Amino acid sequence: MQIEKVEKRIGELQEYIDTYEIYQPVNMKEIAIRLYTEINNVNEVTNALNEKGYRKEGKLVAGKRIQVNLGINDVTAMLNCNIEDGDQLHPIVKKVLNKNKRRKGIVT
User: What pLDDT is attached to residue 65?
Assistant: First the structure.
């Protein structure tokens, strides 16, 4: 590998680390983004969010929506949704998620 390519890759990784370290999540989606950065596994991120008590609205029961656990598809949708202005970590995470999906043979 050429030294220029190595230096470029090191720079990209350092930017990723710096962005992660200053990221301050304020909602469930941003917490999922930060967790995916740490864990790099949607299933484990889903479990962590459920353990922390995060829920989504489920079926309508007696005139109220019940709260149910998040599923893997819910977390994947959060990570793949549109990137909000000013969110510097989300584009990186989205790119990594989609690269991991392609590597596992999942094409969307």
Answer: 86
The mean per-residue pLDDT over the stretch 72-99 comes to 92
* CB atoms inside a 10 Å sphere around CB 51: 9
How many residues make up the chain in this entry? Answer: 108
pLDDT at 51: 97
User: What average pLDDT does this structure show over 84-93?
Assistant: 92
Q: What is the DSSP string of the chain?
A: --HHHHHHHHHHHHHHHHHHHH----SHHHHHHHHHHHH--HHHHHHHHHHTT--EEEEEETTEEEEE---HHHHHHHHHSPPPTT-SHHHHHHHHHHHHHHHTT---
pTM of the entire predicted model: 0.83
Where do the structural domains in the chain lie, given as residue ranges? 3-103
Q: Which residues pair with 60 in a beta bridge?
A: 65
Tally Cβ neighbours within 10 Å of residue 70. Answer: 20
Cα(42)–Cα(19) distance, integer angstroms: 20
Both tokens assigned to 97: 């998620």
